[in-house]
Specification:
The protein has 13 helices and 16 strands. With 404 residues, it is α/β, with parallel strands linked by helices. It folds into 2 domains: 74 residues, Alpha-Beta Plaits, CATH 3.30.70; 304 residues, Rossmann fold (3-Layer(aba) Sandwich), CATH 3.40.50.200. The strands form 3 sheets. Strands 8-9-7-11-12-13-14 form a 7-stranded parallel beta sheet, sandwiched between helices. The structure holds calcium ion (CA) (2 copies).
């Protein structure tokens, strides 16, 4: 008897920790389902039909519904057949796109002393050469580009694990939001494997575009997991609050109508979504990077060879360095970290540089400049020719093109 209670207890803990798992083995949040209504449909009448509840309005025509645990997949099937519904999907859980086998960042043990000496430099926005002259920054010609453009006042939304109180971010942020804990403070919380992922990403945006501004939108907990509902809300929020770019250093291995809709909404309002191809070393990209309107980013190493972990495919738009990026970590440290996650903010930074030259640039113009200016690297990874996008980004070439 005691043994049986123990088993039940273990099962309950697993359900709470990981949610449920669908047929394709993608975890999702238990007891939740997303639904998008067609115009003129009534959400209350709809949920009454299925004995579900409205948990939250997620923006535009999308609602998060509550349902009995175990009934999520059936409810999605039934809703998808309902004539008043555009689409319905599970509240999938996504990982951030760092390299999971080394998911703990390698934190520089010297960094506390380093930051104490350099914190004023961070505050002044003159980042130390250890950061600005790291191989990835040299590779994308960031310093040369910054002689011509700074990303001044361009807001970059970082949908991630939140942000930390690192000196790098003093006077570099605009108000964000915490969609995980539902409050106005998007601070990351120490302790999980995903801790500081957002800060590392945000630091790389600023290293590429030093005068851009970070809108931290916390949609991933410090375990590095976020749900489609929270990410959708964050992306709509970013567009409605004036971000020009949305950094998506995460990915889902199945098509998500919610993420599709968020990308289209952003794109339709002149906001470019930049997204990670993913780290499964597979010939297909994760969503939302696979979506046409998003800019899909694959990763290369410091020799412009495809990063061994990076996904690839003809849908990729450009490549950027993704191996051993050096950036902000925690409240004042620095860390080396790898993953297509860290290629994305370099491209967001490049886009911010372009936008500070052409503030009225449309998404199409931005994409055109970013995909017309890279250095061709097909010869260096012949097996992946035409599958790493137009090449490895070159910020100097992009900025020169924007100045024409
Ligand atoms: Ca919070
Ligand atoms: Ca694309």
């Amino acid at each position: 008897m005691a043994k049986r209670s123990f088993s039940i207890l273990i099962l309950c803990i697993c359900l709470i920790s990981f949610g449920a798992v669908n047929a394709q083995s993608i975890p999702y949040r238990a007891g939740e389902v997303l639904v998008a209504l067609k115009p003129g449909s009534n959400i209350n009448a709809l949920v009454a039909t299925y004995g579900a509840t409205v948990k939250r309005f997620l923006g535009l025509n999308v609602f998060l519904l509550g349902t009995q645990i175990g009934s999520e997949e059936l409810l999605v099937t039934l809703l998808s057949r309902n004539l008043s519904v555009n689409w319905s999907e599970l509240d999938y859980l996504l990982p951030v796109s760092d390299v999971s086998q080394y998911s703990q960042a390698f934190v520089d043990q010297q960094s506390q002393a380093f930051v104490d000496q350099r914190s004023q430099a961070f505050v002044d926005g003159n980042f130390p050469p250890e950061l600005t002259q790291q191989p990835s920054m040299v590779q994308i010609k960031a310093t040369e580009a910054q002689l011509l453009a700074s990303g001044q006042d361009v807001t970059v939304a970082v949908v991630d694990t939140g942000i930390t109180a690192h000196p790098m971010f003093v006077n570099k942020t605009v108000p964000g939001y915490d969609f995980v804990d539902r409050d106005s403070d998007p601070s990351d919380l120490p302790g999980g494997a995903g801790y500081s992922h957002g800060a590392h990403v945000a630091g790389l945006v600023l290293l590429t575009a030093p005068k851009s501004l970070i809108m931290a939108l916390r949609a991933f907990a410090n375990d590095g997991k976020g749900s489609v509902a929270d990410i959708y809300e964050a992306m709509i929020y970013a567009v409605d609050r004036g971000a020009r770019l949305i950094n998506c250093s995460f990915g889902l291995t199945t098509r998500s109508p919610a993420l599709d809709q968020a990308v289209s909404y952003a794109s339709g309002r002149g906001v470019l979504v930049v997204a990670a191809a993913g780290n499964r070393s597979q010939p297909n990209l994760d969503y939302p990077s696979l979506q046409k309107e998003a800019l899909g980013i694959t990763g290369v190493d410091s020799n412009d060879v495809k990063a061994d972990f990076s996904n690839w495919g003809p849908q990729a738009d450009v490549s950027a360095p993704a191996v051993s990026l050096y950036s902000s970590y925690g409240d004042g440290q620095l860390a080396w970290w790898s993953g297509t996650s860290f290629a994305v903010p370099l491209v967001c930074g490049e886009a911010a540089l372009i936008l500070s030259i052409i503030p009225t640039a449309t998404v199409n113009q931005l994409v055109s400049i970013i995909t017309s200016s890279p250095d061709n690297i097909d010869d260096l990874s012949p097996m992946y020719a035409k599958s790493l996008g137009a090449g490895r980004i070159n910020c100097l070439s992009a900025v020169k093109l924007a100045l024409r």
